[in-house]
Amino acid sequence: MKKLLFIVVLIPILAGLGWWYFREQALPDYGPLYREYAYVTNGKSNTVSVIDLRTFALAKTISVGSEPTGVAANPKKNEIYVVNAGSSNVSVIDAEANTVVATIGVHGRPYFIDVTDDGKRAYVANSGSSNVSVIDLDKRLVIGNVRVGAAPGLARISPDGSTVAVSNRADNTVSLIDTKLLRVRATLPVCQHPEDIAILPDSSKAFVACSGSSQVASIALRNDTAGGDKKDDRVLALLDVGRTPVSLTLKPDGGELMVCDFDSDSISIIETGNDEVGSSLEIGQRPSRGVVTVDNSRLYVTNFGSNSVAVYDIDMGRRIDTLNVGSRPDALALTPDQNYLLVLDTQSGDVTVIQKRKPRRTVETSEYSLLTLIPVGVQPNAIVVKSFMLSPKK
Questions:
Q1: pTM: predicted TM-score of the whole model, two decimal places
Q2: Which of 43, 79, 143, 287 is deepest in the core (most CB within 10 A)?
Q3: Residues in CB range of 40: below 8 A, 6 or more apart
Q4: In what order do the strands lie in the sheet with 234-240?
């Protein structure tokens, strides 16, 4: 009896020790100056939650403007930009101190922000004023407002920095902005209710999801560089996918585009080279967002309607796992080491952290496990991860 009691008591102790031991072993040690944070916008709390990804604990809650939505990190300096739809401005967060250091006014009802690879400019589509604000990030001021179509939802920068593609939801067009001249060089009619945009790594094509017509538009982008394609911007094809395509996820190598078909409970896979829909398959109830690993091997999809994340093996061409998360999962992100998946649960107001690992025992059949749940604010809706080294003086 004593031996049985000892075993019953020891099992949870070992389980707890094992969890902490495994977590500490899994996290790399970059020294005391290394920082790795996730920033989560809380739309109904008017805050940003800062999660320390070295400890998977809430580090700070930062007050920003009204109804924060989109968030982006500067790739060249330690700053985070938060779009506040309700107050029509952008909060600038110093990532080293995790404090708001500036507020930049834009125009009506902005939702998303995109930052150039050189970290010098940002573009914000203002859905309430039918224009795009161009921000000089060094000076922290708006240097221009470019008139586009009606109710622009998203402004996406091409990797080469020459073009900004804007989806105009209310007039079913895409505006293409020349970033040198800061003016629209083409306005292209596409499909109904264009929203999300993905641009190939070589900046040759843009793809636009049209939720109103169950299509994805393929657009050839003009290239004015030496030896580039001198043809005008043009719509190449309207590709039929599942019902209500809401988001696009591009493989890092640009070869395939994954479409979340919200009302078909499926994903469609587009071959970007020849503009063909290669396959469609059931993935879960109401898939909303996706992310692909840097090695192009795995796609993770949040299933908004079934409180789960689907794991799709790209090489095998099939779903290999379904992971339970919190209520109404939507946006998601991977940590830089690709070992942890962060999932925003919009209804339950938390972040589910899923760990990818090698099973340690024969009874562990899955390579994924729930690490922890981190409470954040009300209606978390966007996330970005930033890793960096503090300057020695910090």
A1: 0.91
A2: 287
A3: 48, 49, 50, 51, 71, 344, 351, 376, 377, 380, 382, 383
A4: 194-199, 205-210, 215-220, 234-240
